[in-house]
Amino acid sequence: MGLPKLAPAQAAHDKLKALGILALNGMFDEMDAAGVLRYAVSDVLPGDLAIVSSFGADSAVLLHIVAQVDPSMPVYFLETGKHFPETLAYVETLKKQFGLINVHAIHPSADDVARFDPNGNLWESDPDSCCHIRKTEPLEPVTEQYGGWVTGRKRYQTRERGVLPHFELTSDDRIKVNPLAYFSDADVIEYRQKHNLPEHPLYAKGYKSIGCAPCTSIVAEGEDPRAGRWRGLNKKECGIHYDFSGAIANPMTAASRHTLWKDGAFIQDPFKDWVEGTKASEARYVHVPLPEFLANRADYLANPHPLGLLVSPGEKIEEVADDLARFASVAIKFPAFTDGRGYSTARLLVERFKYAGEIRAIGDVLQDQIPHMRRCGFNALVVTHEPTRQALIENRLPEMALFYQPVGVAEVPVGTRPFLRRVS
């Protein structure tokens, strides 16, 4: 079954904005999970809402409520390729028992897995990258089809979720609905028993929060229910959620924090700043300076993690031409508005080396430069200048109708005679 293509319900979203997220959260009793979901489906985002379920230890409760409210609601399951066999069997059990007729499995890109996790053990050395490849990346294009989505998160699960509301406004102006936000562990158990819901096969064995098999362990009595997720690591979320508390990002203000402009919006940047002294074997989701890469080329090529390349003025992209396919992104630095050497680097990437990945401009990126950057091949921008941010958001960049240096073979600069141009 193909993924449903739904247009955003703009009118419904405008209505929500007018009502106000705080007023909306004040409309429901803390334990009225069914009322929250029913209102979200019928009044907030009718026909524009989906649910993302892990089919884990607590999933039966929310999916049972979904089945009562709207069994045709799209339900997405991230089939990471790392689940317990018991979880995959549980998916089929709940689908059949609850009459859920619109369940879709989302798989990671086979190319990404082959490139970054060929041996299947990336979770061991870099769980953040593993989650990004197997969860965040596959889910993003799906959730973009909807004005909002439903989660099974609860306040009691972690300290960071302790102020989770029923409704959240995310950084990209969509809605997250958390019907079970105020449910405790005891509430979940009581609901499950009251409605005689099937229990996850691993729950009785001590697995209180169940994700991918390699990163899930048994929880001891008295431990946080999610203590068995990524045990021993400084990791609490897989990356597909923003915590309302702001521990990861405050969804009410995250848009103002994001600086990466790509595909028409400011989005979360998966790349972190390069830290001097980082070992080549441990680097991941950073733009490696070109000289650093050349000095340790073999080690970086052997590194299985996603990497980018950082090119500063004066550095020659030609020196890494044979290795460009290794990089998911190339960041070109503009140290000053008047330094135009980065444009030539971008054109070399696109026209000579046929690089098809992300080409991002960083540094002194201002609105007057952006039309020319786009002509030269930039498809991502890191923007911190507030007037430029607003110009991008409001789509009021200056137009470039006249130019003297053509890009490619199709453009003809003003004042020239195209029939005299030599085609190389």
Automatic annotation (TrEMBL):
Any one GO MF term held by the record is: phosphoadenylyl-sulfate reductase (thioredoxin) activity
Residues the record marks as active site: C238 (nucleophile)
Name the catalysed reactions: [thioredoxin]-disulfide + sulfite + AMP + 2 H(+) = adenosine 5'-phosphosulfate + [thioredoxin]-dithiol
Q: Which UniProt keywords apply?
A: Cytoplasm, Iron, Iron-sulfur, Metal-binding, Oxidoreductase
EC number(s) reported in the record: 1.8.4.10
Q: Where does [4Fe-4S] cluster bind?
A: C130, C131, C212, C215
Pfam families hit by this protein: DUF934, PAPS_reduct
How many cofactors are bound and how? Answer: Binds 1 [4Fe-4S] cluster per subunit.
Q: Where in the cell is it found?
A: Cytoplasm
Give the pathway listed in the UniProt entry for this protein: Sulfur metabolism; hydrogen sulfide biosynthesis; sulfite from sulfate
InterPro entries from the entry? PAPS/APS_Rdtase, PAPS_reduct_dom, Rossmann-like_a/b/a_fold, UCP030820
Q: Which GO terms describe its biological process?
A: hydrogen sulfide biosynthetic process; sulfate assimilation, phosphoadenylyl sulfate reduction by phosphoadenylyl-sulfate reductase (thioredoxin)
Needed cofactors, names only, are: [4Fe-4S] cluster
Lineage: superkingdom = Bacteria
Q: Which GO terms describe its cellular component?
A: cytoplasm
Q: Where is the Phosphoadenosine phosphosulphate reductase domain?
A: 49-217
| Principal subcellular localisation of the protein | cytoplasm
Q: To which protein family does this belong?
A: Belongs to the PAPS reductase family. CysH subfamily.
Q: What does this protein do?
A: Catalyzes the formation of sulfite from adenosine 5'-phosphosulfate (APS) using thioredoxin as an electron donor.
Q: What is this protein called?
A: Adenosine 5'-phosphosulfate reductase
Organism of origin:
Devosia crocina
Q: Which gene encodes it?
A: cysH
